[in-house]
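In keeping with the milestone schedule agreed at the kick-off meeting, the structural modelling team has produced records for the first pair of proteins. Each record is given below as a sequence line and a C-alpha cell line. The laboratory manager (R.T.) confirmed that both were archived under the project's standard naming scheme.
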Amino acid sequence: MSCNKRILIVDDEKMNIMALAHFLKPQYDIIVAIDGASAIEAAKKHIPDLILLDIIMPDISGFDVIVKLKESESTKNIPVIFITGLTDAKNEEKGLSLGAVDFIAKPFDKSIVNAKINTYLQT
C-alpha cells in the first residue's frame, strides 16, 4: 500500500481528469469521480486527503456536493478546492462560504494547482 496522500478529482470532463491525474500521479494516489453522487460515495469510502471539485456537473453541482461532504462526520474535515470555469467573485464567495479552502480557475495552470495542493497537504 502506498504511503502517498490521496487526492479525489471530481470532474465530468474526461480531459480535465486526465490532465490533472497526469501531473499529480507521481506524487499522489489519485481517485476519480465523474459526477456528484459518485464523488460523495468515493469521499466516504476512500477518505482522501484533499478533493479537487468541479462546480458544474450533470447530476449534483459541486456546491451541493460540498454541502453533503461538510454534513458528514467522516468527510467534513477534508479540504476541498474548487477547480472551475465559474471564476466570478459571487461563485468564489459562495464556494468559500460553503467550506471550500480555495479556488482554481479553468483552464488551470499546473504550477498553480501544485502550489495550492502543497499548501493544504503540508506534512
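The second protein of the pair:
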Amino acid sequence: MIKNRVAYTIWLSATAVLYIFGNDAGTRVIFYASLIIPFIFICIAGILARYVKITLHAPEKRTCGEAVRVYIATSRTLGLLGHIQYHVLCENIFTGERWENINEFTPAHCGIHVFTLPQPKMTDIFCLSAWKMPPPVSKRTLILPKRHPVSIEMDANKDPGEAFAIREYMAGDPLKSIHWKLSSKTNTLLVREADMPELQNVLVLVEATSPQGQTLPNPNEVHNMAEKAYSIAHALLMEGIPQTLGRLNATTYESHEICDTEGLDTAFTQLLSNTIEPTYAAPAYEEICAQYAHVIHITAVPR
C-alpha cells in the first residue's frame, strides 16, 4: 500500500505541474480527475467496510494427508469497488503448532485446527486507503489421525468363546459375531455377545502429559501417540470389543465409552482439543488402571 501511495503522490504532482504550466482544458481534466476519482473510491471503500460482512469457511473434518482449503465469502459482491486484505492464522491446539498466511495446506499432524482472520481491511481499488473490518467467527477443523493395521490378541485365559449370550443382529454388529448355524434354524440373524465383564473392561489410556523436568514432546511425538491410540481403538471395535478411551492430564482425568466408530470420532474430538501439559500425575495413573482388567497405555514420551 505504501508503494501505491508513493506512486499516486508522484502522479498527482506530475499532473499538477502539467496543469500549472500547461493551463489548458486537457491538463485541468487530468488533474481534477486524479483528485476526484480516487477520493470517490476511498469513500466507497469506507462505506463497504461498515456494511460488508466476512464469513470464514473451513471443512469440519479431514484425515491427515488430505488437503484443507480455507477461504472467505462476503455478504455483498464487491466487483471493482474494493478489495479485502486479510491473512489467515492457524493453530493446532493438540500439538501447539502455529502458522500464518495459510489458505490451503495438507496437515501432517492430527488435532483441532483453529482458523482465525485477525484485522481484515477493506481497501479501495487503488490501494490508497485501508478501513478496518470486524473479524469473522473463527472456524475449527478436526484432523483425525490415519488408521494403521493393528493385531489384537486378548489373554488366552479370557477367551470370548467361553461364555456368550445370543441376541438379534443390530446395525453395526461385526459380521464375525453372527451365529450362522442358529440363525439358519430360526430364520433370524442372531449374534454372539460376550458375557464376560472383564472382556468389555478395556481401557485405552492416553497420557497427555510430560514428566516433570523433561521438555514437552515435539509435534511428531504427540501425533504418533494419537495415531497409535486411534488405530488400537478402531481395531478393538472391529473385533467387537467395546472400550473406554481415557485421557490423563496433569490434574484431571476424563473418559469416554466407545461402542462404535461414531463414538470413537466423538471421543477423539475431545482428546485432540487439549494440549500436552508439562507434569505427570502418578497417583491418578495407578488408581485409574486398577479399575480395569485390560489397560493399553500410550504416551508421547516414555516414563
